[in-house]
Fold:
Amino acid sequence: MARGLSASELAEIYELYAPTVFGRARTLLGRDSDAWDAVQEVFCRLLESAGAFRAEARPMTYIYRVTTHVSLNLLRSRALRDVTTREPEPSEEQEGASPGEVEARNLLRALARDLDERALQIATLHFMDGLTQEEIVEVVGLSRKTVGKELEKVRVRARQLTLEPGWGASS
Amino acid sequence: MSEHLSNLVLDELTVGSRPPPSHLDACEECRARLARRRERGVALRATPEFSRGKARILAHAEAAAPARPWFSWVRLAAPLAMAMSLAVLVWVGSPSEGTRIKGGPFVSLVRLRDGAVDAPLSPGDVVTLSVHAAPHRYAFVLVTDAGGATAPLWPSRGDRSGDPVEVPASPTFVITPGDFMLDAFFSDEPLPLARVREAVARAVAGCEERGRPADCAPPSEVKGLARHYRLSVTVSPAP
Structure:
């Protein structure tokens, strides 16, 4: 078994955390098929870093960090592929998502056009997950000062976006 | 922020990795959110996709065993790594047989000290590059440093994409100061270096013109490209 995880350990980790990974990815990506892709990718990464996962004081922060990273990458890849399709499968997208989640996802998609990867990850944890600044620091592993600066940048851009004509029309 | 429990706390409660906070007793909304999460987890575990995903990842892990002791990578990597300024590639033998699984192609950096994946790095960290091309066959990974200079990272030789199965090697290198980004181009036919390098250079130049970070925009369209994946890496001063 790879990187020091026994089959039973891996199966147990999957049973425990795969629903969280799927739920986060599904909320961000809006499609079941993409969310399952993300689950596979996240667990591939977990296999490669079993030591880091075990060393986490809060393993869920690892799950959040890697799932967010993987999902945002998929989102960007899809944005490139679907550049002409502004609204992908709205019926599937709305299924099971709360209005707040849909609004957060639309905001993140808009922010994805302007923000770099780090800021977008922080925006996701802030707007979609409602994490406190302290929790974001734990998840992303950056200093409190850096997270504070990034959050400010994200909030300013989000405010500008929501004031732009047409914002919310797709929500 | 909201006075309610964050998703992180709710997810930790769902898997039983923390005791319930007192807020939960007092907040009907948070109790309902937690209950919905638990219900969704139960329902998901009953789906065929869940079982299939578990089987795939277990098969992947089985195919990847036995793992090579990580200290052997360090032993080979350290002397060469010390001699180079940006990234020194060290070929350390054949990895386990590649297993093509669903999940999309990607690259990741694994820090050898603690196995952290795609974590913020510090100068002196020794990392290995992991290339997962499936479901596509070929990959080309370029590195762009803080100054905007782009160079091929994998394969390090030749002027065309490599097949991770046929080119069984994973580069190990030492981190030097300055953020950098990796651009991985996945394809079903080999791509020429000039084509992918030009795409990255154009994107970086466009970002510079707008006064934005080098990773502000993806590379322009590349003929023959199936998927592009970017990994931006922050390099912070050592604590």
Residues 83-94, 167-171 of chain A have pLDDT under 50 and may be disordered. The two ends of chain A are 45 Å apart (CA to CA). The first helix of chain A runs from residue 7 to 29. The domain at 98-164 of chain A is CATH 1.10.10.10 (Arc Repressor Mutant, subunit A).
